[in-house]
Amino acid sequence: MEEQNAVKALAALAQAMRLRVFRALVVAGPQGLTPGAMSEALAVPAATLSFHLKELMHAGLVSQQRNGRNLIYRAAFDQIHALLDYLTRHCCGGDKTC
Fold first, then answer.
1. Within its chain, how far is the Cα of 90 from the centroid?
2. SS3 string of 18-70?
3. Which sign does the torsion angle of CA 9, 11, 15, 17 carry?
4. How far apart are CA 53 and CA 58, in angstroms?
5. Predicted model pTM
């Protein structure tokens, strides 16, 4: 992961509602969630949720797929793993077991 992408991802997660949305998608796993399910579970208006999902997608942390009439959002696990690797790459003298 490049530094610029890490900064985008961290900036996107540095907002309480976006962090809640992202965590909900992580918990949902590969099946993802529809905006309606997220809006209800997080008690957030649809327009507000849409704004935060757009920001998370821009940062590469969330993907979107159309399934018939529904949109399904999923956490981009590969991106969060890349971010964690980027952040820990030089810790412990490069020993990845710590």
1. 24
2. HHHHHHHHHHHHHHCECHHHHHHHHCCCHHHHHHHHHHHHHCCCEEEEEECCE
3. negative
4. 9
5. 0.86
94's tokens: 């490069």
Tokens of 17: 């509602």
- Identify which of 73, 89, 64 has the alpha carbon closest to the alpha carbon of residue 1: 89
**pLDDT digit string, tens, across residues 46-93:** 999 999 999 999 999 999 999 899 999 999 999 999 999 998 886 766
CATH number assigned to the domain covering 3-89: 1.10.10.10
Whether the CB-CB separation of 34 and 71 falls below 8 Å is answered with yes
Helix axes 16-28, 3-13, angle to 10 degrees: 100
Contacts of 38 (CB under 8 A, 6+ apart): 21, 24, 25, 44, 49, 73
